[in-house]
Amino acid sequence: MKKLLILFLAFIPCFTIKAQTTIQRDPQIEKMVNEVSKDSLQSYIKKMVSFGTRSTLSTQTDLSRGIGAARKWVLSRFNEFARQSNGRLTAFIDTITLPPDGRRINTPTLLGNVVATLKGADINDDRIFIISGHLDNMRSNVMDGVGDAPGANDDASGVAAVLECARIMSQRSFPATIIFVAVSGEEQGLLGANYMAEKARKENWNIEAVLNNDIMGSNNSNETNIINNTKIRVFSEGLSILDTGKNALNIRNLGLENDGKARQLARYVKETGERYVDNLEVVMVYRNDRFLRGGDHTPYVLRGYAAVRITEMNENYYHQHQDVRMENGIQYGDLAEFMDFEYLRKNTCMNLCNLANLAKSPLMPQEVKVDTKKLTNFTNLSWKTSKNGKVKGYYVLLRETTSAVWQKKFFTTDTKMDLPYSKDNYFFGVQSVSEEGNESLPVLPSPAGR
Ligand SMILES: [Zn+2]
User: Per-residue pLDDT for 18 more than 70?
Assistant: First the structure.
């Protein structure tokens, strides 16, 4: 037990846990977070709105209007960042021509995702982390590609966050690869994300996390008139589509229905986001998306990747998927004047610190086991070192079965730990930790003799 260093105690009365951590911020990440600029975010949004409409069905040949001009502009921004990246960042428009689908595509349509890849510096590290927002938008009628659709919040806000992260992160080097993507065809049925997720699956990309940002820069609700810019939601599903058969049996036996890949990622996003961003609470919502609604993380989720949706706390439906108009004294339409750029700045910082912490972390520990040879009130964990990356040590995480978040973190340089906490009453996980303290995603132990 001497080797245990209890880094923090998070128990507070009634076991309602608020993350309280003495884990230091990584100064490199803190510096990047401080570089996120409200003004740049605002200027990106102003520019995207200036294309009049970014409907996937809008003109692709006009130089200043429509989705074609908009994606060329995003590419030009990525290329500008690439020029200062010492060759690390490369960008292109990944296109596919989609046939009419009898639903939301009425004529063969060229679809283009604007993709920038910040290649990892470690050639033995094939992990990929993705940040996504959708460039396309819609009017009240999703088939109308002609009339104005500003789409400032849905989803120029997400694309602005993607651009700002690319601007800052491309000036640094990370062991793992980060992909920044401005997707098209979201409003026509998640078409661009489907295309990219399917490509990833076919080409066996080792995607460890997808952060999909969609509607994240406005702070108030209509009807209920809530105004708040200190909370952001992260949506995650509890179980993965791969959790069937033997996996499902294991989950039922061990009570792991709240520990699927996406949920685990959401927990990580909350802890890391709250570590680096002041005056921001990351609120986990235990469902894949808002009630009966969809987003670009879902095509990844459906292929077994850990993907979450990041969305503002309160949505204003007067400003979402609405033609710009005045009606009964209410201004409808997704206009930039309804945005809160300080809130968008914080939400962008939340993405950036998570991407950076993940991309700087070592690979996850391997073969994490909990000893079940005999009945004991101790929990005996063991694991093997990460396959790659400089590992300073490991965190063993612990939480009560009813707790949404990890409550304690124990550091060790060893590859085993015996804890005086019963595995009957707690969940455990193990993370690899880099020299600078960046944690991998956790691995939950599987039962085994030791
Ligand atoms: Zn959207």
Answer: no
Residue 294 has pLDDT above 70, yes or no: yes
Say how many Å lie between the CA of residue 243 and the centre of ligand 1.
Answer: 28
Question: Residues of 171-202 as b/e, b for ≥16 C-beta within 10 angstroms?
Answer: bbbbbbbbbbbbbbbbbbbbbbbbbbbeebbe
Structure token digits, residue 438 = 């960046």
| Distance (Å) of CA 182 to CA 2, 131, 162, 296, 417 | 50, 9, 7, 11, 43
pLDDT in tens, 248-274: 999 999 999 999 999 999 999 999 999
Q: How far is the CA of 155 from the centre of ligand 1 (A)?
A: 5
Q: How much distance in Å is there from the Cα of 250 to the middle of ligand 1?
A: 36
pLDDT value at residue 390: 83
Q: How far is the CA of 185 from the centre of ligand 1 (A)?
A: 10
Q: Write the Ramachandran bin of 249: left for phi over 0, alpha for psi from -120 to 50, otherwise beta.
A: alpha
Task: Tell me phi and psi for residue 348, to 5 degrees.
Answer: -70, -45
Distance 9 CA to ligand 1 centre (A): 39
CA of 231 to the centre of ligand 1 (A): 19
Tally DSSP H helices, then E strands, for the chain: 9, 18
C-alpha 224 – ligand 1 centre gap (Å): 21
Q: What is the pLDDT of residue 13?
A: 36
Alpha-carbon distance of 198 to 244, in angstroms, equals: 21
pLDDT digits over 326-365, tens only?
999 999 999 999 999 999 999 999 999 999 999 999 999 9
Considering only CA atoms, give the Rg of the chain.
Answer: 22
Which tokens in the block code for residue 238? 């509890």
Q: 191 and 56 in contact (C-beta within 8 Å)?
A: yes
Each residue's pLDDT tens digit, 276-286: 999 999 999 99
Task: Please tell me whether residue 131 adopts helix, strand or coil conformation.
Answer: strand
Reduced to 3 states (helix: H, G, I; strand: E, B; else coil), residue 359 is helix
How high is the pLDDT of residue 21? 52
- The torsion angle over the Cα atoms of residues 306, 312, 314 and 317, rounded to 10 degrees, is -90
How would you class 256 by CB atoms within 10 Å of its CB: exposed for 0-12, middle for 13-18, buried for 19 or more?
middle
How far does residue 306's CA lie from ligand 1's centre (Å)? 19
pLDDT band at 4 (very low <50, low <70, confident <90, very high): very low
How much is the pTM?
A: 0.94
Residue 230 three-state SS: coil
What's the number of CA atoms in the CB half-sphere (13 Å) around residue 240?
Answer: 19
